[in-house]
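User: Let's play a game. I give you a shape written as tokens, and you guess the letters that built it. Ready? Here's round one.
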């Protein structure tokens, strides 16, 4: 019985140490910058404020034209994220959730004089994704969904079309 208790304590101690190591590996970088693709092209920067919590800034540009109609927009999004370790699945992998706010500027036109229109819009965003740091490289990749609730400008309500794939260079 004494040996069993010693073995259980040793396993628990080892498991606790392993969890701490995995948590550090999941957030093995502090600051990274890069590009995001999907729903336009974006510049992104992510900075960890501690082992589990990060802030991300996204500057998104999108344009579209079809026939006589065209539009373009720029959106600035700030997100607060909570990262959770998934290193048991794969080293360097984490999932995250969070939220934030955004503001954007929209312009469009029909193909006839006097049809140009502009708008400012903004609201709140959620965030759900996977974050992966490629071992032995300064590269981080993430894929996420950023559902939003538009509070003003260009219609209000739920908007589920934001998110994408980001590739970032790790600065430190």
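Assistant: Ready! My guess for every position:
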């Amino acid at each position: 019985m004494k040996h069993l208790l010693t073995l259980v304590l040793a396993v628990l101690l080892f498991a606790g140490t392993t969890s701490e190591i995995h948590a550090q590996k999941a957030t093995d970088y502090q600051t990274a910058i890069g590009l995001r693709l999907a729903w336009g092209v974006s510049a992104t920067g992510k900075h960890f404020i501690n082992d589990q919590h990060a802030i991300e800034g996204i500057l998104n540009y999108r344009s579209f034209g079809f026939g006589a109609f065209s539009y373009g927009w720029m959106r600035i999004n700030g997100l607060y994220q909570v990262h959770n370790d998934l290193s048991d699945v794969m080293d360097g992998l984490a999932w995250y959730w969070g939220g934030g706010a955004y503001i954007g500027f929209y312009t469009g036109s029909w193909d006839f004089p006097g049809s140009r229109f502009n708008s400012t819009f903004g609201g709140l965003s959620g965030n759900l994704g996977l974050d992966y740091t490629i071992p032995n490289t300064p590269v981080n990749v993430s894929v996420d969904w950023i559902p939003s609730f538009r509070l003003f400008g260009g219609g209000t309500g739920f908007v589920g079309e934001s998110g994408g794939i980001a590739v970032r260079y790790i600065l430190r």
